[in-house]
Each structure stands twice: as structure tokens, then as C-alpha cells.
Design brief:
The complex is a heterodimer of chains A (107) and B (112). Chain A has 107 residues and is mainly β. Chain A contains no helices and eleven strands. In chain A, strands 2, 5, 6, 9, 10 and 11 form a six-stranded mixed beta sheet that branches. Chain A is globular. Chain B is mainly β and 112 residues long. In chain B, the strands form two sheets. In chain B, strands 2, 4, 5, 6, 9, 10 and 11 form a seven-stranded mixed beta sheet that branches. In chain B, strands 1-3-8-7 form a four-stranded antiparallel beta sheet, with no helix packed on it. The relative contact order of chain B is 0.33. The chains are: A mainly beta (107), B mainly beta (112). Chains A and B meet through strand 5, strand 6, strand 9 and strand 10 of A and strand 4, strand 5 and strand 9 of B.
Chain lengths: 107, 112
């Protein structure tokens, strides 16, 4: 069963526009949630995790338990943000990923 | 980042042949994972291992096998029973507790 849902496979915005990548999870307890990013020709790498509550490269993500969501947001997108983004949930000793959203930031 | 090394980078399999993908880590991580990455489907978990000599099936384990004889190594064998093996395979490791995963560069497997 899909534990992590990313409803948008593709997302395109213009430079300077706000961007939100959606993620919904299914675990009813206290999940451990992550956002990973894969830039062109680079390894998949951690972008941020919810427990750190930090902003990385201008991105933030807030855990909303009522909506079981962990959407990734950035107020002003940059061209270098173009990448594949994966939301992930850690539970029961395994890490499960969503299908990913490919973000394209146009000049 | 030499923490996780996957080899080979490209691999070709003939019909009916088993092939083994290598994954080695020098991060002293206990947990290791294998994922399959297909376009539009994200990363799907094949197998994972929390400690040496122990591993569990993920969502799509059929047609695959693993071993964990050493902490540093978690090879994945794609058997002939896997009817659609063409994909990009990613290995990851994770430290104790809930830590971010570290990923390798991946292996692209194709069928001849």
C-alpha cells in the first residue's frame, strides 16, 4: 500500500514564483518525514527532515498532522531548484518514498 | 561522496541469467536498502537489512534476492524470475536511529 503520496508528477513555475510540492502520508502515529532531492546527474540527497524544522536552500516543510501532509514550499523559486523531489516516510525500520515530483523552474 | 559505492554503473542481462549488483559502504551504517527507480513510480523498496545476517522484503521483493554477510556489503541479485528487470537500482544506507539515508550513484540494468 502506498504510504506516501505525491499527487503531482510534474510541476512547472517561473523563476521568482512561489512553489509548493505536495506530499501526503498515511501513518497515523508520529511519522518521521523527509524530503529528498535529485539534481541532474547527481545522487539522491537529503533536502530536509521535519524534526529539524530548518530551512534548506530556502525550502521549508511543515508537518500537518490533521491533514497528514508535509508539503514542501519555497517563496521564490530559482532555476537551480529544477530537480526531482521525493517525499519519504520512515516507519517500522524502513524508508518509503513517494513517486516524486519533477520541478521545472523556467527563466 | 565515497560513502556508498555501487557497481557496476551499467549492467546487461541475458534472458534466463542471474546478475548481482554490488553495494558497499564505509560509513559504518547498520541499515542498508535496495530500491528500484522507474519513471513515474519513484523509488520502490526491494529489500532492506537492519543488521548483519538479517534482511526483510520490501514491496517488490519477488524475483530478487539479497545477502548481508558483512556490515559493509549488501549485494542484490536479480534472478531470472524477475520478468521486468530493466530499471535503475539504488542502494542506500542509514545510521542508527532515524537518520537520513545516504545513496549510491545507482546501477542501470538492461536486458539484452
Amino acid at each position: 500500500a502506498q504510504r506516501v503520496t505525491q499527487p503531482e508528477k510534474l510541476l512547472s513555475v517561473f523563476k521568482g514564483a512561489p512553489v509548493e510540492l505536495k506530499c501526503n502520508y498515511s501513518y497515523s502515529g508520529s511519522p518521521e518525514l523527509f524530503w529528498y532531492v535529485q539534481y541532474s546527474r547527481q545522487r539522491l540527497q537529503l533536502l530536509l527532515r521535519h524534526i529539524s524544522r530548518e530551512s534548506i536552500k530556502g525550502f521549508t516543510a511543515d508537518l500537518n498532522k490533521g491533514e497528514t501532509s508535509f508539503h514542501l514550499k519555497k517563496p521564490f523559486a530559482q532555476e537551480e531548484d529544477s530537480a526531482m523531489y521525493y517525499c519519504a516516510e520512515y516507519n517500522n525500520n524502513d524508508m518509503r518514498f513517494g513517486a516524486g515530483t519533477r520541478l521545472t523552474v523556467k527563466p | 561522496d565515497g560513502g556508498i559505492t555501487q557497481s557496476p554503473k551499467y549492467l546487461f542481462r541475458k534472458e534466463g541469467q542471474n546478475v548481482t549488483l554490488s553495494c558497499e559502504q564505509n560509513l559504518n551504517h547498520d541499515a542498508m536498502y535496495w530500491y528500484r527507480q522507474d519513471p513515474g513510480q519513484g523509488l520502490r523498496l526491494i529489500y532492506y537489512s537492519q543488521i548483519v545476517n538479517d534482511f526483510q522484503k520490501g514491496d517488490i521483493a519477488e524475483g530478487y534476492s539479497v545477502s548481508r554477510e558483512k556490515k559493509e556489503s549488501f549485494p542484490l541479485t536479480v534472478t531470472s524470475a524477475q520478468k521486468n528487470p530493466t530499471a535503475f537500482y539504488l542502494c542506500a544506507s542509514m545510521g542508527s536511529g532515524v537518520q537520513p539515508q545516504h545513496f549510491g550513484d545507482g546501477t542501470r540494468l538492461s536486458i539484452l
